[in-house]
Design a protein that fits this description.
Blueprint (H helix, E strand, L loop, with lengths): L1 H16 L7 E5 L5 H12 L6 E6 L2 H13 L6 E5 L15 E7 L10 H9 L2 E12 L3 H9 L8 H10 L4 E5 L12 E7 L3
Parallel strand pairs: 1-2, 1-4, 2-3, 4-5
Antiparallel strand pairs: 5-7, 6-7
Length: 200
């Protein structure tokens, strides 16, 4: 139930906040079984966008296998590509996986050692176009998440100011806090949503 609610929160957020357009290049960093890409692809279809590129990487073979099965079952092999890669060593990515308009990372950075977070963010920044943006979802530190996410899932938790600092250290000059809206406003208590850009 908790995971289902999280999925619905992210889908609702993307529907209201994410802008998709033709010829857009999108990377799902830490794609898992494809939550973000599936939603953005659906939005692109609704808007009749063309020439879209969707890429995703993850470190977990089982999650990638589930996503790849969905891609094949929906005959989207020419539209969506996924591969196994570690955000700390993106040399594993295909050479043409660059110059993205949008990179999205949802619940991946919680599992990166804190002393390597700036490296991870710099690696993601290096995949963006100069006018591209990074959309980041990360678990907020509070009493509830410390018990549920920190102890149960062994994930790192963050305060909003900490993420701002890390993004600036990674080269992002403009950082905007994004809020979940009705009917999922309560998600703002547990999830930090931030957009980072190079330009001011």
């Amino acid at each position: 139930m908790i995971l289902y609610r999280y999925h619905r929160q992210i889908e609702n957020f993307l529907q209201k906040e994410a802008c998709v357009r033709s010829r857009m290049r999108i990377l799902d960093a830490g794609c898992g079984s494809g939550l973000v890409t599936k939603k953005l692809h659906g939005m692109a279809e609704e808007k009749h966008c063309t020439d879209m590129t969707f890429h995703g990487f993850d470190l977990t073979p089982a999650m990638l296998a589930r996503f790849q099965t969905w891609i094949v079952n929906n005959n989207l092999q020419n539209t969506i590509e996924v591969t196994r890669a570690n955000v700390l060593d993106l040399q594993e990515l295909p050479q043409d996986w660059r110059d993205y308009d949008l990179v999205v990372s949802a619940s991946m950075l919680e599992y990166i050692p804190k002393d390597q977070l700036v490296l991870a963010l710099r690696n993601l920044a290096g995949l963006l176009r100069k006018d591209g943006s990074l959309l980041l979802f990360i678990t907020k530190k509070n009493f509830v998440t410390q018990w549920l996410v920190g102890k149960w899932w062994k994930a790192n938790l963050f305060e909003e100011g900490t993420i701002d600092t890390l993004l600036r250290q990674a080269g992002f000059r403009t950082i905007a806090r994004k809020l979940f809206s009705a009917p999922y406003r309560y998600a703002n208590y547990s999830t930090i949503a931030l957009e980072g850009r190079f330009s001011t």
